[in-house]
UniProtKB/TrEMBL annotation:
The chain crosses the membrane at residues 36-61, 81-101, 113-129, 135-155, 167-188, 200-222, 295-315, 335-355, 362-382, 388-409, 430-451, 457-479. GO terms for molecular function: carbohydrate:proton symporter activity. This is Major facilitator superfamily (MFS) profile domain-containing protein. Residues 39-482 form the Major facilitator superfamily (MFS) profile domain. It comes from Diutina rugosa. The keyword Transport applies. It holds the Pfam family Sugar_tr. It is found in: Membrane. Keywords: Membrane, Transmembrane, Transmembrane helix, Transport. Its main location: membrane. InterPro entries: MFS_dom, MFS_sugar_transport-like, MFS_Sugar_Transporters, MFS_trans_sf, Sugar/inositol_transpt. NCBIfam families: SP. One of its GO terms (cellular component) is membrane. It is a multi-pass membrane protein.
Amino acid sequence: MKKETFSVVEHDAASSGAASAAEGSPGYLSKQMRPLLAVLAVVYLASTSCGFDGSLMSSIYTQPDYVATFRPANDGGATSVSVVFSIFNIAQMVSGLCCPLADVLGRRQMMRWGGVGTVVGGVITAAATNTATIIAGRFVLAFFTVWSSTAAAIYVTEIAPTDKRSVVAGAYNTLWYVGSVVAAFAAYGANRHFGGTATAFRLPLALQCMYPGLLVVGTFFIPESPRWLVGRGRVDEARAIIVKYHGGNDAEAPVVAAEMAAIDASFAAAAIATGWRALDLRPLFGRRHRYRTMLCMLLGWFGQFSGNNVCSYYLPSMLNAVGIESQSTQVLMNGVYSITSWGAAVVGSYCHGVIGRRKMFLASTMAASVAMAALAAASARFQATATVAASTATLVFIYLFGVVFSFAWTPMQPIYPAEVSSNVLRSRSFIAQQLVAGLASFVNQYAAPIAMERISFWFYVFYSLWDVVECVIIYLLFVETKGKSLEEMDAIFAAANPRKASVAVWPPPHHKRTHI
């Protein structure tokens, strides 16, 4: 079958920007890249904070000291655990409505205030003396974590050089696992050295303030997103940032003029909304943007409802089910799970620029389906035989699932929605993504501990089948963003069939193909 081709003449500014970015591009560790790497080190703290906050409870909710303080004995623990976990997702859904503040305040200011709020939430949870306060603290913490993480994901996508976007931006979410690893071993160390006292769980809860606190300080030393500045009419400031971070302090560098022309052209029809206009969601469902919004919503659901939340948040319960009941061992294995998944995510962030987003999503999701099916079979075998071999096989497939899922999904969960959204509506697009992701996580986390108690390994069978459905949807609808600047994506979505247009011959003959 002949591949579809289409004209991109009207997007010459964006095309020349991508081509110029690839010519004479500096290495990732070159002297020219160091200022940008320093900026990214600050912004990555938002992802690390998310990983710490999002996975900490899975390391401490089974600790005897925590159980004695916060979990009532009359419900078997499942209801209490479900509420404490699911309140995190309820807060994320509510906070998703605040995503347009990234347009009003700017990406940098929203990261800063998100960090401040996260610190407040961490203090509340660390000082809590009852379950209600723990729930309230987690609500505050999750609410403001969304502020910083949303703004940070948009920021890294917008400030990344075109030819390095898959690695620079994709690496952002891999730092989630750094926070997760630190959380697991902080809980392990606190339990080992302070077991039998409240410090065993209060110390890890207090450490939730560490990464957002560093983020708050760091935001005073990083620039604003150049695309946001252009959208607000502050072109000279944006050009100065492009010159410093993309042009090697050379105002005459070809990449500077090319990028500025492409960015400026993307705002020719409309600027970034201000005031109450930033809350107008109607453009998200207009003819020119509804396909993009659909992709953001699908990404939000698939990224949280593919079985990954079950494995990452409820790993201790899964280990209990296969006979691994030592609390210290469970915390340690939780940390190892995060380390192996992190390694896969780091490799995947590079491979997205070589293989492409669509192929990576498809391969990873199908492999996740197979791993989940194998996990169900091994778990069923253990329940029937209680053998060491069956227990070991179950553990292997839990870790295998984490690796194959993280390989493709972790780097692109917050970045793909930013890539497929327009410069004008990028922050508002995250409302759709956050609301759907929060809903998926809420349904998943509230139901998971109850489902694992009542239907056991059949819960894994459900996810195996659902992942197959995801593969079909990805193949039919997801667009390819590899090799295209953010502004070039406008040409893709202007085509009659964006999915076909995105996998057509690209780049056009006058382009130089790059790994972005």
